[in-house]
């Protein structure tokens, strides 16, 4: 059976901090431009926290709502007082975030090597299709698998089972590729192989005794290992 590479999208293929420049522009009027990077980091952290909490509560909503609520929280926490029009603009920017610089070339190498690539995300299929298309990388994926199809969030074991069932692939032939340690651990716990894309050398991995099968610095390094 052919090996399947299931790529996380936000933070792995797509740069969630690609919104910083827009944040700088929106925060200039309030004199808080210097908070842009911190705002971006907190927004992303809260977005994930909200998905975890909703998963535990059984209170699923589309990932975009977690993103919007996290934006509102971060605005309040940092007292940046963004206008509603600014928040709407930032949500629109989030829907067209850029891919990391090496993403397209690495995916091309992997598909040329005969590896089957799919996108696997907390985002809805519509949102992910839009992101991949505007980033110019949709053509490299055989399919898009969204947690929205079963109304759960990563790292719920049901999500990884759904991935395998949708693709009709065995756990040993399925690799999750993610920059998020919680996602890597979730996949390994569910019996999949997993590669951690450690984009920052300062980033630690959770000390749970569950390690990735492979650790790489970016997607080019992944392609070199798997070609």
Distance between termini? 17 Å
Total beta strands:
6
Oligomeric status: single chain
Shape: globular
Average pLDDT, rounded to a whole number, is 96
**How large is the radius of gyration?**
17 Å
Spatially, the strands of the biggest sheet line up as: 3-2-1-4-5-6
Give the SSE order as H and E letters. Answer: EHHHHHEHEHEHEEH
How many DSSP H or I helices?
9
Task: Write structural notes for this entry.
This protein has helices at 20-28, 36-57, 63-78, 84-94, 103-112, 125-134, 157-167, 181-189, 219-226; strands at 4-7, 116-121, 143-146, 174-178, 193-197, 214-216. The chain is α/β, with parallel strands linked by helices and 227 residues long. The two termini are 17 Å apart. The mean pLDDT is 96. It catalyses: an (S)-2-haloacid + H2O = a (2R)-2-hydroxycarboxylate + a halide anion + H(+). It is an enzyme of class 3 (hydrolase). Catalyzes the hydrolytic dehalogenation of small (S)-2-haloalkanoic acids to yield the corresponding (R)-2-hydroxyalkanoic acids. Belongs to the HAD-like hydrolase superfamily. S-2-haloalkanoic acid dehalogenase family.
């Amino acid at each position: 059976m052919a090996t399947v590479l299931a790529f996380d999208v936000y933070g792995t293929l797509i740069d969630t901090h690609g919104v910083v420049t827009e944040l700088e522009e929106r925060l200039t009027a309030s004199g808080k431009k210097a908070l842009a990077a911190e705002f971006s980091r907190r927004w992303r952290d809260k977005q994930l926290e909200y998905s975890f909490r909703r998963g535990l509560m059984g209170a699923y909503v589309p990932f975009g709502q977690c993103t919007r609520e996290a934006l509102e929280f971060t605005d309040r926490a940092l007292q940046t007082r963004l206008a509603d029009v600014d928040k709407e603009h930032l949500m629109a920017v989030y829907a067209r975030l850029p891919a990391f610089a090496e993403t397209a070339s690495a995916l091309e190498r992997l598909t040329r090597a005969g590896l089957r690539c799919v996108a696997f995300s907390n985002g809805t299929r519509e949102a992910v299709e839009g992101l991949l298309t505007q980033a110019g990388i949709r053509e490299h994926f055989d399919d898009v698998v969204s947690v929205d199809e079963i109304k759960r969030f990563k790292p719920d074991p049901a999500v990884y089972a759904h991935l395998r069932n949708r693709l009709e692939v065995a756990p040993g032939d399925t690799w999750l590729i993610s920059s998020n340690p919680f996602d890597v651990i979730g996949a390994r716990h569910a019996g999949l192989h997993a590669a951690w894309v450690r984009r920052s050398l300062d980033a630690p991995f959770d000390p749970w005794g569950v390690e990735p099968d492979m650790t790489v610095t970016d997607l080019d390094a992944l392609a070199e290992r798997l070609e």
